[in-house]
Design goal:
Number of helices: 4
Shape: globular
Number of strands: 12
Largest sheet: 4 strands, antiparallel
Distance between the termini: 23 Å
Helix content: 10-25%
Length: 227
Amino acid sequence: MLGFRVSAILLLAAICLLMMKTVFGTKRVTTCGDVNNVHRLSCDTGVIVVKDALYGRRDSETCIKGRPQSQISNTHCSLEGTLDIIKLSCDGKTECELNPSVFSKDPCHGTAKYLETTYDCFPAINFDACEGSLAHLQCDEGKIILIWGANYGRRDRTTCSYNRPTSQLQRIDCSDNSRKVANICNGHNSCTISATNSEFGDPCGGTYKYLEATYTCILQSEQLPNN
């Protein structure tokens, strides 16, 4: 499975709790569809939750410099599934970089396209634990852990890449949703998990993986009933 997925019940519970807290701001990023451009989302505080995304063109004003009229006249051009692709790559991270070339399909030949993403920064904690290491989650005294997303695999080439050969970093579509993290950590003040194949299985042999999770610390009085 690609990206950062979570069960519907857990996600609904987590989002309800998050919405009772402060959203750190909605942002919009637009990147012209050039092979050299980088589409970068980031949160100074909190984690990314993508709300909307477009790859194509829906106006005749965006990314028009040097473009003839024939390349900007089609304003009803969009690639189906763009939102899912961006969410799978970026949700739950504090920063995320993509190149428009990630889209192998062209929704409108001859039209100058752009990638536009709208996202929120939610008050949550993101952590990565490299394969073979221990992940330790901790909340302040009187608070407990609520996991709202966890994956074991790889969805970028920079995380946990130090001293690793390129061959172990090429696959970024390697990510397996893990409910196990929630089962172990939810409701506890702290928890420790081993980021290993023996714990989570191996979603992509030959790729150096990492355990990624996003969680909030809630008051014990906010503890949810078992699902």
